[in-house]
Amino acid sequence: MTIKTVGMISSYSALEKRADWLWQQTPHPFGTWGNIQIKTAASKPDFLLMYQFDFPQPQQPKSWLNKLRKPQSKPEQNIPSLLRKVPQERIIYLLREPPLDEIVELNKHNYQKAQQYCGYISGPDDFAPTPNYMPAIWYHSNTFQDLDKLPPPEKIAPCSWITSGINRTENHRQRLQFLKSLQENEIKFDLYGRDLPNWSNPSGELGNKWYGMAPYYYNLSIENYADNDWYVSEKLWDALLAWCLPIYYGGSAADKLLPPGSFLRLPSLDEKGIAYIKEVTATPDAWYEAKDAIAEARQVILHKLNLLNWLSDFVAKF
């Protein structure tokens, strides 16, 4: 079998120089999965993944995402020079940001521009040329073999939440208000994350999400967007891979992708949701009841929903 290389470009600044991006998502060395090898900086890749890439536009709208993305060159003619002479039909555009009101026009702009350069264009919303779920990535530093084979870690604490203090959209402000309500109602959980407000009494940032999830029975997995049938993010994958039972707030995509009983549905971000969390986390009973479903969901994430597996299936069509 001939291994095809997949290069990558992104507007996420943290990924710009990551030679080992996704390498932890395969049991094989150097990012190999089936018929592909992910090599982000390959000079002459067989395929190119444009992963949340922002195309230049006349006037960049102000967005909280700008802090995470590297600035793009303004001239449109610079784009072909980034594509490493990969044929258009072998260039994949995957947008992973949800269609929040504050950035939906930017997403639409990216889809429109991608059609000039890419053979496949997808994103988790109805505006995309091919609406689809975003293939899974996760943010544990553990090896694939450990995640795949090791039994559940020891659980000693009831519940955690890993989030951030970003408040630049209405959805983020709603999430922070729910956090405040949880604490005012003295719901017991440990909070981790970056840029959290002082009033939230956070436990600090984490270099590896595993340490803020694995010792807990439950994890609050609250999406920034819950209003369509496509969007689901690593918040759910990370919790399940750490053998947590997620208390999940999000759209219906998760129900279509994961086995029944592998996560709990948080009904709302209000008093009803607070009461639900308090009741569930009072005992580990729900975790024990869901243990087999969690194990099944983990295998689905690792082997089926995995972005590397998705890329391998795409390449196999050529």
Short description:
This protein has nine helices and twelve strands.
How is this structure best described in words?
The protein has 318 residues and is of the alpha/beta class. The chain has helices spanning 79-82, 104-114, 144-149, 170-184, 234-241, 253-257, 271-281, 285-305, 307-316; strands spanning 4-10, 32-33, 36-38, 47-51, 91-94, 120-123, 130-131, 157-164, 190-194, 216-222, 245-249, 264-265. The protein has two domains: 4-132, Rossmann fold; 144-304, Glycosyl transferase family 10, C-terminal domain (Rossmann fold). 29% of the residues lie in helices and 17% in strands. The strands form two sheets. Strands 2-3-1-4-5-6-7 form a seven-stranded mixed beta sheet, covered by helices on one side. It has a five-stranded parallel beta sheet with strand order 9-8-10-11-12. It is globular, with a radius of gyration of 20 Å. 40% of the residues are buried. The mean pLDDT is 93.
Helix content: 25-40%
**CA distance, first residue to last residue:** 13 Å
Count of distinct strands: 12
What is the class of the largest domain in the CATH system?
Answer: Alpha Beta
Give the number of helices. 9
Shape: globular
Radius of gyration: 20 Å
Strand order of the largest sheet: 2-3-1-4-5-6-7
The CATH superfamily of the largest domain is known as Glycosyl transferase family 10, C-terminal domain
- Unreliable stretches, pLDDT < 50, 5 or more residues? none
Global structural class: alpha/beta
Largest sheet: 7 strands, mixed
- Provide the domain count: 2
CATH topology of the largest domain: Rossmann fold
Encode the helix/strand succession as letters: EEEEHEHEEHEHEEHEHEHHH
Give the mean pLDDT.
93
CATH hierarchy: architecture of the largest domain:
3-Layer(aba) Sandwich
What proportion strand? 15-25%
